[in-house]
């Protein structure tokens, strides 16, 4: 499965199959949340949240690709991500794009 954030794949003629998406609501455990809160006092990267978002993006991307595979897609173009905070220490990540088949 080819995944790109452009609306084309060089050298390929594409047949659009439709929009696909994957989403996840992800949180860290209370211990990491407390430690992350303390980090805001001194500033700097909150690595626990960086890891959380990387994991959530990977899961949402996999779910999107799985949906495209069920449609018989060869690739997904124009991939985008959106995030939102559901509650403290919890985020939703949605990944979406257009499933395509090579002609």
Automatic annotation (TrEMBL):
<dbReference type="Pfam" id="PF01906">
    <property type="entry name" value="YbjQ_1"/>
</dbReference>
<protein>
    <recommendedName>
        <fullName>UPF0145 protein E7215_05190</fullName>
    </recommendedName>
</protein>
<dbReference type="InterPro" id="IPR002765">
    <property type="entry name" value="UPF0145_YbjQ-like"/>
</dbReference>
<comment type="similarity">
    <text>Belongs to the UPF0145 family.</text>
</comment>
<dbReference type="InterPro" id="IPR035439">
    <property type="entry name" value="UPF0145_dom_sf"/>
</dbReference>
């Amino acid at each position: 499965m080819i995944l790109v954030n452009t609306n084309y794949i060089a050298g390929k003629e594409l047949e659009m199959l439709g929009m696909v998406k994957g989403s996840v609501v992800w949180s860290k455990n209370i211990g990491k949340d407390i430690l992350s809160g303390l980090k805001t006092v001194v500033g700097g990267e909150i690595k626990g949240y960086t890891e959380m978002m990387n994991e959530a993006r990977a899961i949402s991307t996999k779910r999107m690709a799985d949906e495209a595979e069920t449609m018989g897609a060869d690739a997904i173009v124009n991939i985008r991500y959106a995030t939102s905070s559901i509650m403290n220490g919890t985020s939703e990540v949605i990944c979406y794009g257009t499933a395509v088949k090579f002609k």
